[in-house]
């Protein structure tokens, strides 16, 4: 407490004003915290509010698990931020869908975490500042800004990394799915039944792709045309290669050409592209190993090879 007062005193210059300002900030923070907790507790404990939020989130169906209080609180906090920015919310929703988060409240929860995490980390850092010795005012402010920035960017970095990892898994697994689909189509199954069969076969080895194919089959069963369901698949995955496959299948269905031939040709191209990607990554390994070899192995080699000679030279010059 005294440390924070000294920091404020350096900024303001008047000790009496510093104490009044500090007391006012603490009082305002306590009032806002009490009001926020009261509003959230009232909204979460009200049966009507809980029922409305459950219906809005799609949990009116009995077999789905009800939302927890923490999740509903995050939805309420994030909804205040994302309600006025429809374009940003749409972009964020696309990012979350590509990362595998399909919940209707995923955008609200995402923005709530991005808002609350920097504040929580900043508050913890402020409490830990008095335990850091010889900390100047400029360094303390810089540390707070750094912690706030890390808290703001960490959820976005995590979601982006999850998106890239998921897209890589889908891209690697898709040629195998196409091969299985070719076998099913050429054996007499229609395209929706082939997609359903492939989804069942790949549910263990590639659960991400199996879930996407199962969603395609569910949309077809609901009455959506196959081309539209495949377009939705391309939008959910975000892969350009799948968009190309959807265009080829749409043309094949429109003009009455063989779907099996189209799938076989595209599966071969897809497999060649995957092989080229693997060769490209293998070619980059040599360049990427240069820096670990220089910074990790070279100092050890230098000490082992030249260290004894240097010690002998120092001994000889020490006797002189």
UniProtKB/TrEMBL annotation:
UniProt-listed Pfam families: T2SSF
Highest taxon above the source species: Bacteria
UniProt entry keywords in alphabetical sequence: Cell membrane, Membrane, Transmembrane, Transmembrane helix
Regions that span the bilayer: 20-41, 111-132, 138-161, 289-314
Tagged with keyword Transcription regulation: no
GO cellular component, one term: plasma membrane
UniProt-listed PANTHER family: INTEGRAL MEMBRANE PROTEIN-RELATED, PILUS ASSEMBLE PROTEIN
Entry protein name: Tight adherence protein C
Organism taxonomic ancestry: Bacteria, Pseudomonadati, Pseudomonadota, Gammaproteobacteria, Pseudomonadales
């Amino acid at each position: 407490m005294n440390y924070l007062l000294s920091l404020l005193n350096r900024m303001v210059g008047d000790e009496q004003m510093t104490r009044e300002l500090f007391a006012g900030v603490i009082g305002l923070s306590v009032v806002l915290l009490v009001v926020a907790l009261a509003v959230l507790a009232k909204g979460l404990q009200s049966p009507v509010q809980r029922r409305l939020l459950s219906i809005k989130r799609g949990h009116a169906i009995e077999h789905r698990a009800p939302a927890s209080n923490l999740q509903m609180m995050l939805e309420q906090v994030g909804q205040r931020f994302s309600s006025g920015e429809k374009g940003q919310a749409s972009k964020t929703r696309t990012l979350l869908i590509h990362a595998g988060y399909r919940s209707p409240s995923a955008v609200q929860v995402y923005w709530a975490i991005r808002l609350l995490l920097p504040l929580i980390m900043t508050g913890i850092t402020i409490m830990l500042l008095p335990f850091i010795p010889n900390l100047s005012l400029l360094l303390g402010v810089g540390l707070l800004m750094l912690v706030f920035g890390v808290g703001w960017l960490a959820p976005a970095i995590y979601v982006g990394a999850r998106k890239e990892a998921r897209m890589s898994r889908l891209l690697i697994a898709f040629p195998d799915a196409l091969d299985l689909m070719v076998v099913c189509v050429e054996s007499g199954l229609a395209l929706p039944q082939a997609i359903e069969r492939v989804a069942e076969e790949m549910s263990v080895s590639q659960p991400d792709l199996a879930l996407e194919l199962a969603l395609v089959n569910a949309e077809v069963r609901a009455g959506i045309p196959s081309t539209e369901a495949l377009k939705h698949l391309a939008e959910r995955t975000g892969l350009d290669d799948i968009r190309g496959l959807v265009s080829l299948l749409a043309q094949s269905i429109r003009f009455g050409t063989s779907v099996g031939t189209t799938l076989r040709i595209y599966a071969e191209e897809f497999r060649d592209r995957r092989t080229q990607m693997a060769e490209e990554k293998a070619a980059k390994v040599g360049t990427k190993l240069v820096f670990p070899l220089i910074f990790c192995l070279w100092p050890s080699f230098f000490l082992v090879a030249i260290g004894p000679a240097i010690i002998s030279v120092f001994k000889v010059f020490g006797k002189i």
